[in-house]
Amino acid sequence: MTSPTTTTDNSPATTLGFPVAEHPAPLDELLGDPFASDNPTGYEAALAADDRGEPFAAGEVVLDRAGLGAEYVPAGLGGRLTGVDTLVRRLRPVFRLDAGLGLGHGLTTLMAALNVWTAGDTAQRARVARLLLDGRRLSVAYHELEHGNDLTGNHLRADPAPQGFTLHGLKRVINNTDRAAGAVVFARTTPWASRPTGRDHSLILLADLTALPDDTFRRLPRLRTSGLAGCRLGGFEFDGCPVPADALLGGLGEGSSVALRSFQVSRCVTAGAGTALLEAALFGVHRFATERVLYGRPVSALPHARSLLAGAFADLQVAGALARAAARALHLHPAAAGRYAATAKYLVPRLVEDALTDLAVLLGARSYLREGEYAFVGKHLRDIAGLSIGHAGGVSCQLTVLPELPGLRLTGPPADPALFDDSPTPPLDPAALRLRGSREDPLLTVLAHALDDADPHPGLAPLATGLRAELDAVRAESAALPPAARGVAADHRALALTERYAWLLAAAACVGTATRTGPTGGTPDPRWLRAVLERIGRRSGRLPEPRDTAPLDALYGELEHRVATGVSLDIDPEPVARRPA
Amino acid sequence: MNPADTADTVATPADTVATPADTVATPAAAAEELERRLGPADPADARARDLADEREEFPRADVDALDGIGLARHYVPVEHGGLLRDFPATAAMIRAVAGRDLTMAIAHGKTFLGAVSVWVAGGVEQAARVAELVSAGVPVSWGLTERGHGSDLVAGEVTAYPDGDRVRLDGEKWLINNATRGGLVTVLARSDPAGGPRGFDLYLVDRRTAGDAYRPLPKVRTLGIRGADISGFTLDGVLLDPEADRVGAPGSGLETVMRSLQLTRTLCATLSLGAADHGLAEAAHFATGRRLYGRPLLDLPAASRTLGECYADHLLHEAFATLATRAIHTLPGELGVLAPAVKYLVPVGTESLLARLRRLLGARAWLRDVRGTEVRAGVGVFQKIERDHRIVSLFDGNTVVNLNSLVSQFPLLSRAHRRPRLPEAGLAQAADLTAPLPPADTSRLRLMPTRGASLLHELPDSADRLAELATEQNELAPVAASTRLLADRARELLGDIGEQPIVPPDVPAHAFDLARRLTWALAGAAAVRLWLDSHAHVSRGGLGPEPLWADGCWLHAALDRVHTRLVAGHRPTAEEEHALERTYAVLTGELLRQTGDHRFPSLLHIRRAEAL
Amino acid sequence: MNTSESTATPAHVDEVVDWLIERVAEYREIPAADVDPDVPLAELGLDSVYVLSLCGDVEDHYGLVVEPTVAWDHPTVDALAKHLHAELTGGAS
């Protein structure tokens, strides 16, 4: 281990110029050093619970005591939810430890509650806020086995009845069905028609599941999964279950339009939380590489190992930059935020999975073990697959983005520089989120302007030609797509455009980060931008493995420095409780 | 050391070997024979396997079933009284088992890995002793790796030092398959305190005589193959006969292991092929039953294409693994290049294939109790396939080890390719699936393939042959062009490899990328040769699906998959894309036909028990 | 917010009907005469993706930012035209 060149005590920034948050995330302190074997909320205990297929009880106790439920409740309703990226930062320590804990304890509750914050009336909002502040859970019931992510095909019916509705049908693969206090259910409220109209479904808020008559409502047996094994996925069965009229969330037929706006928020939270799995694994595998001796020297001294670690660090930076920009766009550029959310939810888990796979190569056989100090890396690799399936799989995110690509315009102003830092954001206004993203693309415009710059940023300059060509090609090829090729009938090349667009957005988020200025910004070293843009080129299959290792070497130096000084490896670093071996 | 020991290991010429009556002729026939004997796969068994996996139970019934049909005899060479004459036949049988359940294949097939060093370097009497035990169903284990050193075998700390007229073994081996169940264990141990390439011996430890001096370690808990007996053992003064129990000459332990690994690394690919057979069948089952957005999943062009590309990857893997397995017989001197390339590419390629299928299946790929619309405990097998399969890229030489092995051969490879060479008869033999194989002669395995890789050497000629065929048969034009492009790119790659200075162990990261690309070039070249040298025979004999072989269809797709990995930024022109679309449509259709007819997803016709 | 270069304000709702019929015909690659303005867009084969494209065209042509929900709530060419015309002319249709 090399000794740090600077210390956080005197210096607010890392070697590459990233400002370090003053305080650790509160949950990081409460959960403690995950490697400490006597820590009841460390990796060993989390893995043991996962192994038994049980929720991580000790972890849930800590989260309950910390009142995590309040993080999901808007400040106006008595909670602590102000900014989506702030929420992600607060959740990161949980996801570093155990994604199953994060999802099972509460993230799915947030997914349900978002519909209430978006469309609920005053009484509904107050009731659900109370529930969450009391530490209770909600299930979010969209999924039906036969329809997957195709919401328009959902069958569960809410038929009109004198008292309100009666529910008929099944929901499966729903988190926490056996212990949720309430649920938000996506239900068909029009007769089945072969052509979906967009107004076929409504959202039903079941605030108290125990109040439903036993003979018409059943919680279905648990379904086991191979990842997120501590999550209790089950289902609901309704057989003529009566619900009152005031259970309707939003207007009749507004189910899709409300859910599609809620998704924009939950996609950003999931993507951001997903980066924490990579952050934790990267720290762990780096620690392993410094301990492990092969061919007479630490693995971390082998150029190939350093390159894998630095590459995964670059991946984390890219993923973090994109996830943060998407989350902050919900506040700062809501008209385009749906496109960014879908893009982040598509690309970030993929990138995290690819990087975890690389790290597993370095860990070797230990990546396959459910025991030992590094078993959590293999678990994270299993769990990320579950996070990326979630309620919005990759392809459904791509199909959200694709129809918007042909008409994109880069003529408006570039994104607010605040998209790339952690300054306070204006409150989230769900009504400002749109089902169809704006033609203007403020984030991509950041990249276009940087490429147009006569004196380009030194980190961008060596890669500018390739990025410009790719940007032009994606726009031209998208513009040429006939409407029939923009939907489910899209071929693989059309669908690939959404992936290429995602890489461009990631590049734009990195450029924005590297060129930010301002009170809370901190301008990173140009080598950082060069390294992450080269990484984007390589991961997207556009560029070969770079011969010049200097940019990645600089990143490796940053990685070692952060590890040595107890600072997280995120795009917005913060002090962490864990210590190098 | 009796020098005759080594000479005795040279395989007896085939014409003097009495071939047992039930030795099966072709790999397809071998796999079908195994399928017939095991009978149709019982869905109840598959569900029970998942639940047993959760409980971490050894797959006793499965292994008993394989013992019951005498599969282990196919791990024993015919010259030692077994049924292993052609490696491709045994490989095909293991593939069929892996296609049912990978844990079962690994739990049973491990015996082959444990015993192989004895076939490679053991004396006649020793081999006869081991052959008898293996044939009787005694599990054999291979004790190579240690807790602190993993793949760095030269750092091994288990010792074998003289103790009177005996040799005494001490130390610990870890992450060893069958370490607890194994009746016989081959152990790599340091015989010279100074170590070094001649400082290790390989010993046979018989558990019956070792007694308490051999202590199994607790079972290691793994992500997949949870039922398998993965553990380790400590040796505390195990006393052995320094001559009778040593495998090969003194100081030859590492060399024997390296040569044995050439065989086992090649054969490991068959585990990946089996896992992909299984995964593709599950994906086809899902895709044919699924409706999304009001239409069948397969009507969504991107979904259909994904399935076609995954199948193309699988066929490429099959072609490469098949050619390399045949090369054990016909081109043993080049196995030093082929084995690490196959061991890297096929498992890693299969991991990415399974990951793509997982994304296609969505939540189904991840649920243990759901398959299609069926909800039942243990019915969701896809997650187990992917989880189990991850072990394949990790054991018997992981990704880093295999790529490193190729990097160390860079100077030889580039030098060999600057010299003119006559066509290699052994390559033509390996590439013609209908050519009879000479007996395998493991004494011809070379640690360093001084003659390079004839696959790459002859690739420009192959491109010429295809170009010529394309002048008569216009449909071959896209394949011929793609082959030419491959030859050009392989030549450039060899040029880059020649310029790469190597300073072990400080291999620059860039060299690993060159090695990775080299494996894809080799796989592409293998596919080209296999098609060129086999297509006429396969078509004439009706040995494989004609739509795949006609017009070089499968090769066209396989090369497309190679090109996307071989160079960054590969993007077909609109015209090429048009041709590829037709090709992938044929492939997707053929995959559905094969899985629907209970055949293996394969270049050849191989029926499962259900179709026999 | 998003106003495009060519923002036409239609004098009469029929102009919007004609313009929408042209779009539908173009998307579905059918003669304009085959587009019945009283038939739901879904039945004309315009699924949600076409609706998104149509909203984009409305924005480009009329400078009016609309959500796909307009087509859910006004599901025929006629209904949609009335709604768009009202929006463009400040309610006087």
From TrEMBL, chain A:
One of its GO terms (cellular component) is plasma membrane. Residues 253-390 form the Acyl-CoA dehydrogenase/oxidase C-terminal domain. It holds the Pfam family Acyl-CoA_dh_1. Residues 1-15 have a biased composition (Low complexity). Signal peptide: none annotated. InterPro entries: Acyl-CoA_Oxase/DH_mid-dom_sf, AcylCo_DH-like_C, AcylCo_DH/oxidase_C, AcylCoA_DH/oxidase_NM_dom_sf. One of its GO terms (molecular function) is acyl-CoA dehydrogenase activity. Keywords: FAD, Flavoprotein. Residues 1-20 are annotated as: Disordered. PANTHER family: ACYL-COA DEHYDROGENASE, ACYL-COA DEHYDROGENASE FADE4-RELATED. Belongs to the acyl-CoA dehydrogenase family. This is Acyl-CoA dehydrogenase.
UniProtKB/TrEMBL annotation, chain B:
Gene3D superfamilies: Acyl-CoA dehydrogenase/oxidase, N-terminal domain (1.10.540.10), Butyryl-CoA Dehydrogenase, subunit A, domain 2 (2.40.110.10), Butyryl-CoA Dehydrogenase, subunit A, domain 3 (1.20.140.10). Its cofactor is FAD. The keyword Zinc-finger does not apply. One of its GO terms (cellular component) is plasma membrane. InterPro entries: Acyl-CoA_Oxase/DH_mid-dom, Acyl-CoA_Oxase/DH_mid-dom_sf, AcylCo_DH-like_C, AcylCo_DH/oxidase_C, AcylCoA_DH/ox_N_sf, AcylCoA_DH/oxidase_NM_dom_sf. Residues 143-238 form the Acyl-CoA oxidase/dehydrogenase middle domain. Residues 1-31 have a biased composition (Low complexity). Residues 33-55 have a biased composition (Basic and acidic residues). Residues 1-55 are annotated as: Disordered. Residues 251-405 form the Acyl-CoA dehydrogenase/oxidase C-terminal domain. Keywords: FAD, Flavoprotein, Oxidoreductase. It holds the Pfam family Acyl-CoA_dh_M. One of its GO terms (molecular function) is flavin adenine dinucleotide binding. Belongs to the acyl-CoA dehydrogenase family. This is Acyl-CoA dehydrogenase. It comes from Streptomyces alkaliterrae.
UniProtKB/TrEMBL annotation, chain C:
Pfam families: PP-binding. Keywords: Phosphopantetheine, Phosphoprotein. Residues 11-88 form the Carrier domain. GO terms for biological process: antibiotic biosynthetic process. It comes from the Bacteria. The keyword Phosphoprotein applies. GO terms for molecular function: phosphopantetheine binding. InterPro entries: ACP-like_sf, PKS_PP-bd, PP-bd_ACP. This is Acyl carrier protein. The lineage of its organism: Bacteria, Bacillati, Actinomycetota, Actinomycetes, Kitasatosporales.
